[in-house]
Design brief:
CATH superfamily: P-loop containing nucleotide triphosphate hydrolases
Helix content: 10-25%
Structural class: alpha/beta
Mean pLDDT: 84
Radius of gyration: 15 Å
CATH class: Alpha Beta
Strand content: 25-35%
Length: 169
């Protein structure tokens, strides 16, 4: 199943992120979201909303220059990762991501294609597109992506996506 959402403004994009965080699966498994789209399409705005939905109260900065920001969120740790400045996928090794590939962590990865072959498969794949009147977010369970094994947490990812049907306006 996939879902398309129309966001008329940045506030709506942030609310989608916040809601998605609030309806995430209740287990402690590592969760990975790929955020794909052009510059200015809403990826960072969505991530900031998602982090707020997890309960992050401190400043939420774009990790464009640091490449990764770590946010404690109660029992969880959220990593906001921006791979835009990488020149090769192998550079992900220098970020120490393996240390965070464990239960209780949620990864929000902007520009995941720049880390191809060096990242865990996504639970959810989000494609952001900027439009003149509104932005669009297309969401799908990561197991529907052609390069992801169908055995990867398919049920939890699909249930997470299904919960978006109740997204408030």
């Amino acid at each position: 199943m996939s879902l398309r959402l129309r966001c008329a403004d940045a506030a709506r994009t942030a609310r989608v992120g916040e809601y998605l965080a609030q309806v995430r699966p209740g287990d402690a498994a590592l969760r990975v979201l790929y955020l794909r789209g052009d510059l200015g399409a809403g990826k960072t705005t969505f991530a900031a909303g998602f982090l707020r939905g997890l309960g992050v109260t401190g400043p939420v900065r774009s990790p464009s220059y640091a490449l990764m920001e770590i946010h404690p969120a109660g029992d969880l740790t959220a990593l906001h990762i921006d791979l835009y400045r990488l020149h090769s996928p192998e550079e992900t090794e220098t970020l120490g991501l393996r240390d965070w590939a464990r239960p209780g962590c949620i990864w929000l990865i902007e520009w995941p294609e720049r880390g191809a072959g060096h990242l865990p498969p996504p639970d959810l794949l989000l494609d952001f597109k900027a439009g003149e009147a509104a932005h669009e977010i297309a969401l799908q369970a990561g197991t529907q992506a052609p390069y992801v094994s169908a055995s990867h947490t398919e049920r939890a990812a699909q249930e997470w996506l299904d919960r978006l049907a109740d997204l408030p306006p």
